[in-house]
Amino acid sequence: MKSLLKMFIPVILLALVMMLLAHFMNREEGYAGGNTLTIYNWGDYIDPSLIKKFEKESGIKVIYQTFDSNEAMMTKIEQGGTTFDVAIPSDYAINKMKQENLLIPLDHQKLPNARYIDSRFMDLSFDEGNKYSMPYFWGTLGIIYDQKQFPHVDFSTWDSLWNTDLKNQILLIDGAREIMGIGLNSLGYSLNDTNEAHLNEALHKLKKMTPNVKAIVGDEIKLLMADGEAGVAVTFSGEASEMLSANKDLNYVIPKQGSNLWFDNMVIPKTAKNVDGAHRFIDFMLNPKNAAKNAEYVGYSTPNKAAEKLLPKEIADDKRFYPNLDELNHLEVYDNLGKRMLSHYNELFLEFKMYRK
């Protein structure tokens, strides 16, 4: 019997060690519930001090993970297994997640700070009545350019990107909806157009831009533009805000022909284990002081009307990032076009990228 016990003791100890290790890894990967909260967000998209503040005020330990695309985020949540209590997807992704039953309805009684959100950014088509989401940030897609390098180029329309003076000067964001949208908007079509003839017309026009395209990149745009490595870029307003801070020769415009008006909202995924904690975090971020601090750190526009009043005057009065309501009327939110059409957009975008080579 003693010999048998001696054989099993190492096995039992090993099992205990493995259980403890699994528990630790699960916490790091977002599997734990209880007194922890796992947040799934874009990279560098929150003031880190706010996480510490929330932990101190709530007593809840935050596990913070990041994603680099809506599609990657949705895939991980769809697969299950990994627990995320709060996620921050974009408008069309929220609509898709609703359709695929990946979200938990919000309890608005637990979100008293929602009253501070500007009514312009509530009850939008992708989530009517804000049943599943609360606004986090919003912004636009536009053109940032070096005013000293191109003082005589009018960048108020997308057509400026075809100007032959811009040869090998343009950085494009690596996104199918964004780049196909430029082609569509420049022709007077909707960002959500699914007409095959219109899409092919847009692709044909985009191909004519290729001599001007220096590169199709992601986050590198910020560094390249700030350092003067390129003269023009297509980027999101928040990224542009960072570039303007680093390089005073730059300017940002929203083309008159139309562009994307986007929203990133906070949601509670179906996988959530700490639903009460998720509501506490969402309401914490809706607090005007916290929202203002977050907006100043990240650089994107806050949808929180009370928070906007707390921002430094030079930020709140900058019409490039806080335009008047009338200036938003020609902008469009991306619709959820469905898997088949989204795949087609990706195929056309890939053809454009291959044509460059």
From TrEMBL:
Keyword Magnesium: no
InterPro entries named among the record's database cross-references: SBP, Sperm_putr-bd
Domain of life: Bacteria
Subcellular location: Periplasm
Subcellular location, principal: periplasm
GO terms classed as biological process: polyamine transport
Database matches in CDD domains: PBP2_PotD_PotF_like_2 (cd13663)
Annotated positions binding spermidine: 92
GO molecular function: polyamine binding
Gene3D superfamilies the record matches: Periplasmic binding protein-like II
UniProt entry keywords in alphabetical sequence: Periplasm, Signal, Transport
One GO cellular component term: periplasmic space
Keyword flag Cell inner membrane: no
Record's protein name: Family 1 extracellular solute-binding protein
Species name: Listeria aquatica FSL S10-1188
Organism phylogeny: Bacteria, Bacillati, Bacillota, Bacilli, Bacillales
